[in-house]
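Bug report

Summary: structure tokens for Fluoride-specific ion channel FluC differ between web form and batch submission.
Environment: batch mode, default settings.
Steps: 1) Submit the sequence below via batch. 2) Compare with the web form result.

Sequence submitted:
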Amino acid sequence: MTYGYEGLVALGGFFGACARYGIGIWGKKRFQARLPVATMLINLSGSFLLGIVAAAGGTEVSLLVGTGFMGAYTTFSAFNAENIQLWRSGAWRTFAVYVAGSYVLGVVLAWAGYALGSLL
């Protein structure tokens, strides 16, 4: 079976959305904390994996995994909605840890993924 570029993005998106949902459910059961650990883990692992794809992937891999899977897997909108909830509830410290940790670790992991992908 062959897929056009649109099919690769759609296929990757399907699996990315399923992975995001599954890890989100698992994380909410596993981590009973104010910090939205599941979303943070998803976005940080997505940063690392996208770094690998950016360095090592060709066109098809970039579309399937980078655009499709990672586009559906990572979630900037949920991240921002959770930040608003933390802010409105007055959880200033948790808010600061979540924002700073997500951005700083996200960039570090994307860089690490890119370095690893360059070796492949």
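Above is the batch result. After comparison, the two runs are identical; trailing whitespace caused the diff. The chain has a mean pLDDT of 91. The first helix runs from residue 5 to 30.
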